[in-house]
Structures
1.
Amino acid sequence: MQTLRRFLKDESGATAIEYGLIAALIAVVVIGAIKALGTNLETTFDKIADCLGSSASCSS
């Protein structure tokens, strides 16, 4: 009976799950930021490539 009570009061597993959830949330945010930044960089590099490939000057 005491073993069961000790098991029910032990919260170390819950703490590990909370840390896992926090790490997963941070990973999702980082992946989203990298994806958004990648899209912006792709657009910028496409503009640069177009300017370099054409004979016209590009101001912006």
2.
Amino acid sequence: MAQEKQLGIGLIGAGAIMRLSHIPTVMKSGIAKLVGIYDPSRERADALAESSGSRSFETLDALLDSREIDAVIIATPNNRHEEAAVAAAKAGKHILCEKPLAIDIQSATRIVKAAEEAHVVLQVGFNQRFWSQVQIAKQLIDSGFIGDVHAFRSVYSEKASAYPAASRYRYDLAQSGGATIIDLTIHRIDLARHLVGDMTGVFAELSHHVLPEKVDDNVWLLTRFANGARGGLSSDRYSPAIGDGTDLYGTEGSIHIASETLNPFHAAPLAVYTERKAADLPDVLRDAHYPDAWWNTFEGGWIKIFPPRKSPYAGQFAEFCRCIQEGAVPLASGIDGLRAQEVVQGAYISKNEGRWVDLPLPADAPFNLPSY
């Protein structure tokens, strides 16, 4: 059988995430090739192109005009996502856009519409959906293994200097559209939607404590879900140790997920509590349990799972390529990006007005960044 043609990938943006994740992922994929890079800083684009064995483009239009390029990965400051994504859609290029999809729901809606009209794949870079432990948890929840989920909580914290960013645009609100909430918390907003379902309300406390820029570096959200569940999400940009952990509580069990890091509070990347006996366990749990003695069987309790540590960026990119080849809707679609953006924008309204905000937001919902 003839090997399928490799997909030609163009990169829009030449920052740290391209160098650390997207370029290695494309080059190791075996199903795609890196064609070239565009960045407003030609010097930065040239340096990244030279190190990756590709080439740089002088303009965005030049990259999008290339017949070698089938799809683009967008990783620019957030306020430039719309321009790049809409132009890529009009050029017939499939789009993998880093989160957040945009800085407000109006911009995100225009991106989604442009991709739909052009019949191109639009995937949002919510890579945390692709951790093995998240995928196992999703299967257990969807199968009803832990019963009806009534509570979700998650923490994702990281000091600002931990990530080797090329600039501090994340803390320039005109470029980023938000700081900690739109860079860290939005990952867990998406994870909550992925595992529990759509949110119907948000109440937010966003504050500034440590960073030199007057931005949100301490985030706390309360959320309501369409299935009646409640959630609590928190993030900060000052914790020297990365804070990470997601818990789901159901009527028949609990699930704990650690994805970004393990610390002394984590027993395993994935831990599941159930009162079911061995015969009623799915294989993934039965195979993971080690009894006190070989002749004993599982009688209920915690089961720790250590799935292979596979790059979520590799899984994300494989999904992107599959959807291009099959004409499928991605696991993390443009609509998922829009819905996550609604939670962020709703949180701003909540902070500014001191109230619960119903979701989804109306199309003309205001976008007013809080002051700190």
3.
Amino acid sequence: MTEPGDPRPLVNLEGVNKHFGTLHVLKDINLSVARGEVVVVIGPSGGGKSTLCRLVNRLETIDAGKITFDGQELPAEGKALARFRSDVGMVFQSFNLFSHKTILENVTLGPIKVRKVSKSEADKRGMELLERVGIASQAGKYPAQLSGGQQQRTAIARALAMDPKMILFDEPTSALDPEMVQEVLDVMTGLARDGMTMMVVTHEMGFARRAANRVVFMAGGEIVEEAEPDAFFTNPRTDRARDFLSKILTH
């Protein structure tokens, strides 16, 4: 278990490789995420960012290398994998909410089923979390009755309800209308401020600049560059990063 002031990284990837058929999607990835750190992964589409996120939650398996979480190698299957997944929250592009359950039921399902929390306790905690993400008034509604931004905030509350050690965000705003993006980013910025360990794949450069402890720039399945946000955005070291930023920051 994590000890206060534990110097070990929460997540560590060593020499990680991943193929999809003949496509070499991730090439010798070495990356660690410290406890309480916010790492934002950016780069062109097809660069391996989402695959990296999915590997950390073991939604995909690796072909070579090693991934450890809280000092342990990722479990292969069974109860150990279910336990591990309950410690690592994941928020996807699509909200993946149960359409036949209310917003509150979506948030409390995991704690009741997996953590064996009582319904009354789960409901109380669920309402606190819905309050935190700004949609407590929507608790009795169904996902189809909410905007995309509200659904994504529900998905964040659902991840938080499991008291995870880390949350992975895979392009959490890419499916949203532009006016809803900020409300989700505001919630994520608040989590970062509160010390939640986060790995965020995103195209939102403002969020990366404001909330990240470290920016990781990926292209062609490799980590091309990593740096603190100010250093990365004002003085990228590689031509590839400079080219990417010149295209994305002028629009």
4.
Amino acid sequence: MAAIDCGTNSIRLLVTDDGTADLTRRMEIVRLGEGVDRTGRLSDAALERTERALRSYAAAIEELGATKVRMCATSASRDASNAADFRAMVRGILGVDPEVISGDEEARLSFAGAVRGLTAAAPYLVVDIGGGSTEFVTGTDSVAAALSVDVGCVRMTERHLHGDPPTAAEVAAAEADITAAVDRALAAVDGRAAATLVGLAGSVTTVAALAQGLPGYDPVRIHHARISYADVARVTAELLAAPVADRLALPVMHPGRADVIGAGALVLRVVMERSGHDAVVASEHDILDGIAYSMIDGTS
């Protein structure tokens, strides 16, 4: 079976047979949500980038013999006025409609992907930092409460962080915006009562790689790594002070993430400050795995 997660910044594919072994796991930065916060629509260029990635994924799905496909699309396609064009394009390539899922469903899938196999103490606060939104989910074996807020690495960069590197005033404006949303989310899901903070998605895993000083991006070293608040604060400050060219030179940095990683790291740092957690457990398993589990478990 094939699971596809199409977010604001990236589109990812997981093909698996039983959820224990990956036949392939791929990611492309397509920036589908580029400009959506300003224009309210998906740009032609963003749709073209996404189409190219989907055609490549469709070829891999056929080659590996996957007979069931589920594609979930998140924040950018929820917000766009031309979402129908996006759905038609996906249907033409994959033969299935993308599910433009609600924030609650996004949270449920992210939580399921993140906590399966996790040995850290429950209850969990799972925070999925995306391009356009961030999901806050609490629970033990299942979701107790969830909220999605419109704070993500692409949205915050486009809204506030215009300099290269951003100015102190720009960072302060982004931090104020993020803090208001984080406080609202933590209150709604009782996030401060959780025993373990689990961080998902590329911003978190990249910060975890940088905090560990890895010579290259290594999912095995990153998955379930425990990163202290001090290290998150240090990496965030370094990223926000560096121009994009310097971020691109970092050996763990995906080229498509370099311009927005400062905002993503800032979201993570604020979450830790406002929730009172002194460490975050980084997870390589997230909504993409949750989509696959939903097909395996028959809950899709």
